[in-house]
Structure to design on (174 residues):
């Protein structure tokens, strides 16, 4: 495994999240017990997307790499994981509480990012086919973007979508 190119770790992130997130989302739905359904990620992208289709979608891309800084040969890859979720326009009621589309999109986003964080905590070495692809994955920041409502053709149901980001530092030893 080359530790110079973050592509190996990006592919491992896609595999680990794709494999483990559905179970974690089910556990979160049970824990919150408010009827809000969390959808599995439908599409992973490895390059920036302004409006990805097939939401929930996840963009995982390298931001930068820092060469080894010590005798152990640790390289640091800084990777952005950006998640996009959506909800249909209108009010929804969950456990007697009405939520707007933007509130629902926000809850879905925060809970799905929580699920991804738990998956990465449980598999911090990004083990794929019994082989660790990283020494450690650290979540460094979780910024959220405001809710957006894209313009659509008249008569089409309008969607609200929201995105948030996990900024990751992936440590890889040589």
């Amino acid at each position: 495994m080359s530790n110079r190119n973050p592509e190996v770790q990006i592919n491992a992130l896609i595999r680990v999240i794709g494999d483990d997130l559905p179970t974690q989302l089910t556990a979160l739905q049970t824990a919150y017990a408010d009827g809000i359904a969390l959808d599995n990620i439908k599409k992973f992208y490895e390059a920036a997307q302004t409006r990805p289709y097939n939401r929930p979608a996840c963009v995982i891309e390298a931001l930068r790499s820092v060469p080894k800084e010590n005798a152990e040969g640790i390289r640091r890859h800084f990777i952005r994981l950006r998640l996009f979720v959506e909800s249909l326009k209108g009010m929804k009621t969950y456990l007697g509480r009405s939520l707007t589309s933007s509130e629902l999109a926000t809850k879905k986003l925060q809970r799905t990012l929580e699920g991804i964080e738990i998956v990465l905590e449980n598999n911090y070495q990004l083990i794929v086919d019994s082989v660790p692809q990283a020494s450690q994955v650290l979540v460094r920041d979780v910024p959220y973007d405001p809710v957006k409502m894209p313009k659509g053709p008249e008569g089409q149901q309008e969607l609200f979508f929201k995105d948030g980001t996990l900024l990751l530092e992936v440590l890889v030893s040589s």
Summary: DSSP finds two helices and nine strands in the chain. Residues 134 and 172 are 5 Å apart (CA to CA).
